[in-house]
Design brief:
Layout: E1 4-9, H1 15-23, E2 36-41, H2 44-52, E3 58-65, E4 69-70, H3 72-79, E5 86-94, E6 97-101, E7 109-112, H4 114-119, H5 121-127, E8 132-135, H6 139-146, E9 152-156, H7 160-164, E10 167-173, E11 180-187, H8 193-196, E12 201-209, H9 215-225, E13 230-237, E14 245-251, H10 258-267, E15 271-281, E16 286-287
Parallel strand pairs: 1-2, 1-3, 5-16, 7-8, 7-9
Antiparallel strand pairs: 3-4, 3-11, 5-11, 6-9, 6-10, 12-14, 12-15, 13-14
């Protein structure tokens, strides 16, 4: 039996890693019964390029966080015409953070990505007022740093504790804040009927809207007129063409629905180019 490669934004123990494991359990139904090899890569472009070069592989990349906003590397890679991958699913995770370290030690340093440090600042000041707050490239990198130090802790995914030999000192922290991260499942071709069965559908587009008066309104109105809700819209500059933009758009509809087909046909009049990046299922949110 062939091995399914699933690439994700690392290092090991990241929330992308956790989403990959929940979506594709090893040798379980979610992976079609195939053994799974998880491939951690340091950047979003690395994940997308890895999957593009390997037919049959899949990738997990973050697209949006409810606190920090869009992941522009993901958008820029997917809207690039050189990228031939398709968005095959939207996955979400409710992010719940843990304080990881060694039980019984006095904490002098707390490491994490800058966003969790900001969000968890009040909790840290209330529970560990003497600890210095230090930035790391990611929450999982923070756990890896702490695994090599004493009197230090990391704010990270609690599953990283086992991976890096740490104790869960507190969980959850900053529990008053809703923190949802959304991910795209990417691969070659469309999502299979089995993967999409019974799930709500979405579509993502790349639209090069004409640079003229009223063109953006002309692009957007067909979605309203045909009853299609737009859940994301982000403009990105076209390299070498000042004042020209590509809009990344996600809509809550299936590309096969008549209302979506009508909206695309009408919206295309306002565009120099419009491309469907994927029509895919949206999976219920996981919990970390």
């Amino acid at each position: 039996m062939s091995i399914l490669e699933v690439a994700y934004l690392g290092p090991a123990g990241s929330f992308s890693h956790l989403v990959a494991k929940k979506r594709f359990p090893e040798a379980a139904e979610g992976s079609g019964g195939a053994p799974v090899h998880y491939v951690n890569l340091p950047t979003i472009p690395d994940v997308i390029e890895y999957v593009q070069a390997r037919p049959g592989s899949r990738g997990i990349v973050p697209i949006e966080n409810s606190s920090a906003g869009f992941l522009l590397d993901t958008i820029d890679m997917l809207i690039n015409p050189a990228c031939t991958l398709r968005i095959q699913g939207e996955l979400s995770m409710h992010i719940r953070l843990a304080l990881l370290g060694r039980a019984g030690e006095t904490l002098k340093r707390v490491y994490s990505h800058h966003v969790p440090l900001l969000h968890c600042g009040p909790w840290l000041r209330a529970h560990h007022p003497e600890a210095e707050h230090l930035k790391a490239l990611s929450t999982s990198e923070a756990a890896r740093i702490v695994s090599r130090e004493t009197q230090a802790a990391a704010i990270a995914n609690r599953e990283a504790a086992e991976l890096y030999g740490l104790d869960v000192l507190a969980f959850p922290i900053d529990e008053q804040r809703v923190n949802l991260t959304q991910f795209f499942l990417i691969g070659h071709g469309e999502a299979t009927p089995a993967e999409a069965a019974g799930l709500p559908r979405e579509i993502s587009l790349a639209a090069a809207v004409k640079n003229q008066v009223g063109s953006l309104v002309e692009f957007l109105m067909p979605f309203q007129n045909n009853g299609v809700n737009l859940k994301r819209i982000m403009s990105r500059p076209i390299s070498g063409q000042p004042n020209h933009y590509i809009f990344f758009v996600s809509a809550e509809a299936d590309v096969a629905e008549p209302r979506m087909a009508a909206a695309l046909e009408q919206a295309g009049i306002a565009c120099e180019e419009i491309r469907v990046l994927g029509s895919y299922p949206r999976v219920d949110a996981y919990f970390s």
